[in-house]
């Protein structure tokens, strides 16, 4: 079945959530949203899913595909932490359904000044793959002896009276809203200028995925400070959401005892990958690479490879190259066979097996190579990511050019901005 891009929250409630193997892992019980002040876009953050063990967990909207009769999980890893709303968040069914609202839609002038009762909210996925709130279904006052109530559907931007979620202060909700409108790098620069209390407010209100994206863009000292302010359980969750290379670097900035505790709280496969990365010297390719590139077996088709490359959670640099290995495909993999560039995939028939279109002549990087070797490698082969192997020919990960640049630039480059010393905007 094809995915759908518009749906009411009430329709989602009760749907089965299935993993990549087709197994049901739970049912949708609610939708988590962040409401913005009137006139600004409000968004759906994720689903509250009741797992088979009755525990309710949160799954971000970016990690699911909404089908007509079920929800498909796009990412294999989800946090099993019991769901609780954070400041600035609301649930549609638990918090908003039944609330009194006011409608000022010019097309529904007969409802102006008449209290309505919210019964459902429509969600729509936009071009940036975010789910936003677009319409509201509401019931009017009872009429007649039988108490009949008319149903009205109005655009979201003509609804008043819901406030801005559970945040205790409107100023805090507005502050969080400003951050959500920024790119992670710009949000990081903004957050680094705030006082500790304001920074803590933002961290508490953001979901794990967004906070992880922002932390990755902060200077090293600020990364450690933000993480230290979180509960130990949430800090471990944030590390799981971060890119492995960034998470390993951050753990290296922490006290050894705290780093060990955080690693113990993480999922075993996540912590093992980070421990391997932390064994390498920081100036080597092994210390700069990510352990989670796009890896497939040679029997995979071009269609499968392109589907994986379209994953919105995969960084752009890593989606440019598919690495092909013998099983297992989790790093460290079986024998590395070669790679296929994204442009090559776009020129081949969808049914073609990628093992037949490999570029076997591109040499790999080795984990012990230094940063100068890596820079020369990217300049020589005009790449944005490259394979990293060990001496036995197993793929250990991939080095992205943005991570190399981050390492080669001066330590204070984030604080200085794009054009240090210039009056032009950074």
From TrEMBL:
Gene3D superfamilies: CBS-domain (3.10.580.10), MgtE N-terminal domain-like (1.25.60.10)
Entry annotated with the keyword Transmembrane: no
InterPro entries the record matches: CBS_dom, CBS_dom_sf, Mg_transptr_MgtE_intracell_dom, MgtE_N_sf, MgtE_transporter, PRC-brl_dom, PRC_barrel-like_sf, SH3_actinomycetes
UniProt-listed CDD domains: CBS_pair_Mg_transporter (cd04606)
Pfam families: CBS, MgtE_N, PRC, SH3_actinomycetes
Annotated GO MF terms: magnesium ion transmembrane transporter activity
Membrane-spanning parts: none
Keyword vocabulary terms for this entry: CBS domain
One GO CC term on file: membrane
Residue ranges of every copy of the CBS domain listed in the record: 358-415
Superkingdom: Bacteria
Signal peptide: none
UniProt name for this protein: Magnesium transporter
Protein's organism: Corynebacterium lactis RW2-5
